[in-house]
Amino acid sequence: MCQYEIIYYHSNHSSLYEIIRDYYLLYEYNSTNFTCYTHLQCNRGPFPACLDWSEICDGQVHCLDGDFDEEHC
C-alpha cells in the first residue's frame, strides 16, 4: 500500500517531474499553513520566515545566504 497516490496522469507525461509540473500549472499552490523545510541550511530572514517545500527547485533562489534551494535540481 502506498502513502501517496498520483491521480493526475496523462499518457503524454514521460516523467514524474512532468506530472507534478503540469498539475501545478493548472492548480495554483496556495498554502495558508507553511511547513518549514528544515533539511537545507537556508537563511530566509527573521522568524517566522522559512523555506517551504514548494520553493525548492522552482527556478528562483529564496535563500539570502546562497542558492542552496536550487542546488542539484
List the helices and strands and how they pair.
Elements: H1 16-26
Descriptive account of the structure:
It is a single chain. The chain has 73 residues and is mainly alpha-helical. It has a domain at 34-73. Helix content is 15%, strand content 0%. The chain contains 1 helix and no strands. The protein has one helix spanning 16-26. The two termini are 29 Å apart.
Name the features.
mainly alpha, 73 residues, 1 helix, elongated
Describe, in short, the structure shown.
This protein is an all-alpha fold and 73 residues long. Helix content is 15%, strand content 0%.
The SSE order reads H
Helix/strand-derived class? mainly alpha
Number of DSSP helical runs: 1
Helix content bin: 10-25%
Largest sheet data:
none
- Care to count the β-strands? 0
Q: How confident overall, as mean pLDDT?
A: 83
- Residue share in β-strands: under 5%
Cα-to-Cα separation, first versus last residue: 29 Å
Radius of gyration computed on alpha carbons: 15 Å
Low-confidence stretches: none
Shape: elongated
